[in-house]
Amino acid sequence: MAQLFLDFSPKNKFHLIHLIQKLHADYHNHNYFYMILNNLQKHPLLFLIIPFFYKLKGVVIMRKILLVIYLLSISVHFLFSQENYVLFKVISFDAYPANDCEIYVNGELKGYTRDNGTYDFYYDSKEKSYLIEIKSTIEKVSKRFSINIKDGKPELKSDFIGFNQLGAYFNIEKSDKKIDEMLVYFKDAGVTDLFVPVFFDGKTIYPSKVKGIKSSKKDLLKDVIELAKKLNIRVHAVLNVLNWGDNTEGFREYLMTNRKGNWDGGLEKDKPFVSPAHPFIIQTLVYLTRELAINYRDLYGISFDYLRYKKGNISNYIEDDFGYEENSVKMFQNTYHIDPFSIKPDTNKNSNWYKWIEHKENLLINLLVKMISAVKDTNNQIKITVSADPNYLYNRGKDLSCENYNDISEFARVDYFLMQVSYKNLENDLKALEPFITKTLPMIYCDEKINEEKFNKLIDYLKANRYDYFFGLYDSYLFASKNNCEKLIDLTFRR
């Protein structure tokens, strides 16, 4: 910072007009000189202290020169403080402040974001609109948007400006299109993050050495990573943690059961879930995550789906409530000294029913912590995401899935959540996740194939409600349309 004062040494004589012009430029560019002047103006006594500091550093600064600078700063502040400005904050993919971003206004570089990601945009009330482009020097991404001036005031959609992130869910084995063909669609739509199921139905899409599971002879995961890397798309490996598919051969003894001892009850009758309390299941899942972190160094993230119990109705809890396998029951009895088979649903938060719910929530969290540790201890750069229902917290005690993402966020090293948002319940689901929006990627799924009219309504809703930079789509068929891709890339400002 000493260099900022060298321009004012006796060796560098500036004309007064030149000096004011420099002060004005620095004022707008938010560099250190402006901050010094601003602090001098707020705290006049600093001009008595600073010389001594710089004298110790070997830089000779005269009090008289500092006094002149201080008086000039007052003049500059008086001349330019009346200008109109609006403050906005730029955030990165990880919801952290994005500093050192270049700010372009109508194609001209005007300044940089500060360490806290903020930028003061100065505008002329007589102008109609400004085209703003933010370029990240770190992430090598950019975002464009317009600030329209109406009645002398700027219309800024949001004071939070996020870099464009569009997630897509791509089940390779269930897709009717080839990997390279589908990836082109994703790229054309501006997809930044691709979530690929790598473990589902109890098997992997890559050659695995983990015992007790089935694996593919072909390495489809390697193929998609290599192709996605060329297109600058980040790949997340998705594990269906507890839903091991329709085939129960080889792991029936590890299945999650209801009070009757059945694994095929509840609303998801045909989906066998394994128990998060069984040591073999815990060990297998830990080995799987470690294997991914070691063998696939180009993975951007690992995502945990189906980290929950089977869905069901509390009114039919005998059939729909799961978690009554031997290991789970013993752990609950040892902790609470209560027989879970005797518990009935109770909305009282101090009830035994809530203790049972909390027990199952903790089993899920403990499993997740072990899997994350296996990843982070191997590759600390891998991002961790967890799928969840945004409405769970509002239905806790009644929702039998037990996916308490609030506690997960507190006790586990999760980078962000994939909140499953239903197209049919779009407004309510998105509203439910608002408190977690900075750590959430809403993943919208459709219960049926939507036509062009419904897709347009979806786009319009996202535009109107500020979900223009941080959302995803589960349904990959939505990307297999040139028109859809153009609308998505326009929405996320990828061009």
Description:
The chain has about 500 residues and is of the alpha/beta class. The chain folds into 3 domains: about 5-80, no CATH class; about 85-160, Sandwich (Immunoglobulin-like); about 165-490, TIM Barrel (Alpha-Beta Barrel), CATH 3.20.20.80. It has helices at about 5, 15-30, 30-40, 45-55, 65-80, 180-190, 220-230, 280-295, 315-320, 325-335, 350-375, 405-410, 425-430, 450-465, 480-490; strands spanning about 85-90, 100-105, 110, 120-125, 130-135, 140-150, 155, 160, 165-170, 195-200, 205, 215, 235-240, 300-305, 385-390, 415-420, 440-445, 470-475. It has an 8-stranded parallel beta barrel, surrounded by 4 helices. Helix 8 runs parallel beside helix 11. Residues about 1-35 and about 50-60 have low confidence and may be disordered.
Blueprint of the fold:
Blueprint: H1 3-6, H2 16-29, H3 32-42, H4 46-56, H5 63-80, E1 84-91, E2 101-105, E3 108-112, E4 118-123, E5 129-136, E6 142-150, E7 153-155, E8 160-162, E9 165-169, H6 179-188, E10 193-200, E11 203-204, E12 214-215, H7 220-230, E13 234-240, H8 279-295, E14 301-305, H9 317-320, H10 326-336, H11 352-376, E15 383-388, H12 405-411, E16 416-422, H13 426-432, E17 440-445, H14 452-464, E18 470-473, H15 482-491
Parallel strand pairs: 1-8, 9-10, 9-18, 10-13, 11-12, 13-14, 14-15, 15-16, 16-17, 17-18
Antiparallel strand pairs: 1-4, 2-3, 2-5, 5-6, 6-7, 10-11
As a percent range, the share of helical residues equals 25-40%
Count of DSSP strands: 18
Identify the overall geometry.
Answer: globular
Strand coverage percent: 15-25%
**Secondary-structure-derived class:** alpha/beta
Describe the sheet with the most strands: 8 strands, parallel, barrel
CATH topology of the largest domain: TIM Barrel
CATH class of the largest domain: Alpha Beta
Count of spatially separate domains: 3
Q: Give unreliable regions as ranges.
A: 1-35, 52-60
CATH superfamily of the largest domain: Glycosidases
> What's the end-to-end separation, in Å?
38 Å
The mean pLDDT is 82
Query: Radius of gyration from the CA trace?
Result: 28 Å
Task: Write the CATH architecture name of the largest domain.
Answer: Alpha-Beta Barrel
Please report the number of helical segments. 15
How do the strands of the widest beta sheet line up side by side? 9-10-13-14-15-16-17-18
